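Bench notes, afternoon.
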Amino acid sequence: MRKELPKWFLHSLETEWGGIKLSEEHKRISEGVGLPPGTPVYIGEERKGKVKISIIDYSETEFQEKIVETAEECFPFKEKPTVTWINVIGVHDVNILQSLGTHFGLHPLVIEDIMNTYRRPKMEDYGEYIYIVVRMVYYDKETSEISSEQISIVLRNNTVISFMEKEGNIFDPIKDRIHNNKGLIRGMKADYLTYALIDAVTDNYFLTLERLSERIEAIEEQLVKDPQKETINEIHKTRRETLMLRRAVLPLREVVNGLQRPEITIIEKSTKIYLRDVYDHTVQIMDVMETFRDMLSNMVELYMSSISLRLNEVMKFLTVIVTIFTVLTFIVGNYGMNFRNMPEIEWKWGYPTVLIGMLVLSLIMLIWFRKKKWI
């Protein structure tokens, strides 16, 4: 009879090797199969509601911020000498994204990639502009799970257009610096704003790693005290999330490294110095995640060792019990043979003597087992 593999093992194979069955992500990606290249089709979690568009236009001496409802209201900012940041929250509306793409000269493949929220982080140079895809990772306090979201960034002349799947507060510190004229951002160009956005996404990884570290410490403590079946499930869940983080950070490192290439002239040398710092952060994040992955692998081995040790303790205890009762069973069986000529059966003190003898023999065996350190 063929023995079925455990569900957690199949899930682990599915996540790490992708060979068991299609994940929900792959099922959604398949919705765009067969369509002509550049066809804008939203692929991602179901979204409802209107797309929100905010515009921040600034220079060293000027600043204005406004919320608009249509893409057409962004058009006057295309050729302004000041830096303009257009932040689009929601990528499920085809009409708005096509309208923005047409006016700002974005390639249809760029619009297609923006609406496909499962793209790998990358950087593409289109000459007049560069297109960047990164993944923002955050810790959901309600579900205690790590989730990710795609952020697309288009850097064109003095304009930066960012596309987010849903509303969040990750860019609030940047908005505060622009609004209050803190730091260098108001005196720099749009390429520095692009760096600031990527840096904010990268810094958010450290917050997620901190939460992940706390969870790993809790798992390790539980492993030492009292490992349960839920413990191994928590280990595999954390390991899957670590792999998800690695798949997001590894290409992000390539993106940041690519932005520093000499042929990327839209980004000035002064900004590339700051990008080197972001690159160092991605390397640091990768090192931490490799450490986490090794720790989780060791935890699986520790869990299996703990279970084996617990099983050995139980088997040792049962073996001692069986050994003692084997001797007692021999004595009882010896007096249960029903022969007529058995002197002890007629003896008045025969029954209590046998019981006391069995008790004394059991105590002697227990003392001997203890002396041998078998129990």
